[in-house]
Design brief:
This is Carboxypeptidase-like regulatory domain-containing protein. With about 300 residues, the chain is mainly beta. The chain has 2 domains: about 1-165, Jelly Rolls; about 170-299, Immunoglobulins (Immunoglobulin-like). Helix content is about 0%, strand content about 50%. It has no helices and 21 strands. Strands 11, 12, 14, 15, 17, 18, 19 and 21 form an 8-stranded mixed β-sheet that branches. Strands 1-3-8-5-6 form a 5-stranded mixed β-sheet, with no helix packed on it. A 4-stranded antiparallel β-sheet has the order 2-9-4-7, with no helix packed on it. The N and C termini lie far apart (about 105 Å).
Length: about 300
């Protein structure tokens, strides 16, 4: 009689064993390693899978697929009890982006454990998650949430280090909205500038030295009008691509230091500065001045 697989997790932890076996008769023995418990029953189930992927049997941490610093793994959940285990070895602290792509209708879940099988977190399928992990060894498992499974459809698990974010150095402005019917990118004779009145929304993107969007970073704008040299500012945080929208409200009226004749109307306006900063650092910008519209009259 030859031993094929054996339990190794210890008490209070559910364990699954798997074996790709030849046709024949197999004997299964259950016994106590130390002591006994007459009050708490155990449950034991045997499932047979006719279809499985090349990673099987990986239903136990002793048979887990081992990955260094990142995971790119495809597999099949071949029965309602199937669990696919992976070992992730990190040589240093890392920010890891995790995505479990499951195209099937059978719902799956991703669990992460430390080296001692202490539970860390669960992550949903078909959603991107960013997690901070210290250097060391981790156990990752993919398992069905319900009794449903799909032994014809591959899931894919990717766990990749997030590249360190570089500091922002500049911003580009795609559009500035304004009230008062004056919104637009126009030329009053001093070059093209965005025209604004009282309430504005600035749409832009925060960029690093390589021109890549800087996510989850503060950006602030400051505008100074001519009347009493009053300043207006607001700040927001960029999205995952470095994009942002900042609202600046209730600018004081323009005094009309400049004028422009359209052929039918005389427009009175000011030219006012706008600057952008991030964490107190001045940013380069593709705009630095605005046309601040005051009023117009027919002539």
């Amino acid at each position: 009689m030859e031993e094929h697989v054996f339990s190794s997790y210890g008490p209070t932890i559910d364990e699954q064993l798997a074996k790709i076996g030849d046709k024949g008769i197999y004997f299964i023995a259950i016994q106590s390693l130390v002591g006994f418990d007459t009050d708490t029953p155990f449950a034991f189930t045997v499932k047979h899978s006719t279809t499985y992927d090349s990673n099987e049997p990986n239903d136990n941490i002793l048979r887990a697929n081992v990955y260094q610093n990142s995971i790119d793994h495809s597999g099949i959940i071949d029965n309602s009890f199937d669990i696919d285990w992976m070992t992730l070895l990190l040589d240093e602290d890392k920010v890891i982006n995790t995505y479990l792509d499951n195209p099937s209708k059978a719902p799956y879940r991703l669990d992460i454990f430390d080296n001692n099988l202490n539970f860390i977190t669960s992550l949903n399928e078909n959603e991107s998650h960013t997690i901070n992990l210290n250097s060391g060894q981790y156990y990752i498992r993919v398992l069905p949430i319900t009794t449903a499974f799909d032994d014809t459809s591959f899931y894919t698990l990717t766990m990749e280090e997030v590249a360190p974010t570089k500091n922002p150095v500049r911003t580009t402005i795609s559009h500035i909205e304004s009230d008062g019917g004056v919104e637009g990118f126009i030329d009053y004779g001093y070059g093209k500038m965005w025209r604004v009145k009282s309430n504005i929304t600035i749409h832009g993107q925060l960029l690093d030295v390589d021109g890549i969007g800087v996510p989850n970073h503060p950006v602030e704008t400051l505008i100074q009008v001519v009347l009493n040299e009053k300043q207006y500012s607001n700040s927001v945080t960029t999205d995952s691509n470095g994009n942002y929208s900042i609202q600046v409200s209730k600018l004081s009226p323009a005094v009309g230091k400049y004028s422009f004749f359209t052929g039918s109307h005389q427009h009175l306006y000011d030219i006012i500065p706008i600057v952008f900063t991030s964490n107190g650092q001045l940013l380069e910008s593709d705009i630095s001045m605005l046309y601040h519209f005051g009023y117009s009259y027919y002539r």
